[in-house]
Hints:
By secondary structure, the chain is mainly alpha-helical. The protein contains 14 helices and no strands. The chain has one domain. InterPro entries: Complex_I_Subunit_2, NADH_UbQ_OxRdtase_chain2, ND/Mrp_TM.
Amino acid sequence: MNSTKMMFLMFMLMSTMLSLSSNNWFGGWMGLEINLMSFIPLMSNKFNYYSSESMMKYFIIQSTGSMIMLMGIIMMSLKINNQLDTLIMCGLMTKLGIAPFHMWIPSVVDGLSWLNCMLMFSWQKVGTLMLLSYSINFSIMLLPIIFSLFIGSVGGINQTSLKKILAYSSINNMGWILIAMKSSMTLWLNYFVIYTIMIISLTSMLNKMNINYINQCFLTSFNSMNKLFLSIMLFSMGGLPPMLGFLPKWMVLQSMIYNNDYLISIIMLTTSLITLFYYIRISLMMILVNSEKPKFMSIMIDKKIMFMFMLINLLGFFLIMIMKSIN
C-alpha cells in the first residue's frame, strides 16, 4: 500500500460521503464520478494479467450508467417529463449490476484481487444504493428484483471460480436489498451492514489463504481447521441458520409476510435455497476430503483472525435468540 493508493483510497471514501450528504441529484452524481475515478487506479495489479481488462470494462459500464443517470437528472430538472426517475433508476441499476444489467460483474470480478473484490462488493455500493433508495419505484422495479433473485441463484451453480460465485451471490443479495427498501430505510441498511460484515470476513480469509478456485479447497495440504472455519463462512453467506447470514433474510421475510407479499416471499425463499445449495456443496466436499494434518488444533492461519471470524458468524445465533425473546 503506497502513498498513491492511500490517496486514491481517501478520495474514494470522501466521494461516497459526498454522495450521501448531497441535497441534490447533481451532487450525488458528482460523488459517484469521483468514486469511480478513485477506484479504477486501486484495481491495477501488475501480478494479474486480467486487471487492465477488468479496469476497462468497469470504466465503460460505470460511465454508461452515469451517462444514463445524468440524462435523467437533466431532463427532470428541465421538467420535460415527470416519469424520468425511470432513467435515473436504470443508470443506478447499471452501476450496481442489478439484473438485467448484471453481465459485467462476473467478468470484472475475475480480474480483481480479493481486497478489490471486498471493496467492490461493499463500499462501492453504499452511495449508489442510497441514491437508488431515494428514487425507487416498485411498480417498475418488480421485474429487475425477480430477475436478480433468479439469475443470482442459478448463475453460481456451474461456476468453479469463487470470485464468480460471490459475484452471483452479490446479484442475488441485491434483489433482497431492493425488496428490503420497500419496507423501510432501517431494514435495508441493517441487511447491507450484515452482508458487508460477512463479505469482508470471507474475502479476508480467502485472501490470506490465497484461494481463488473451488479445487484449491480440496487440496490434501489444506488444513482441516481452516476447512472448518471456511465452511462456517460459506454457510453464513448462504443464510443457513443459526449463522449471521440468516438474520437479515429472516428480518426481510418477516416484513414481507406482514405486508401480505406471499408470492414474492416464496420466490425469495426458493432462490435463497438454490444459493445455499452451491455453498453447502463446496463445504461438504471440502470437509469430506481427507487432510494431511487431521489434528484439530493444528492451525495455519493467525489465531486472532480465525476466532474473530468465528465469533462474527456465530453472533447470528445470539441475535436470533434475542429477537425471538423480544417478539
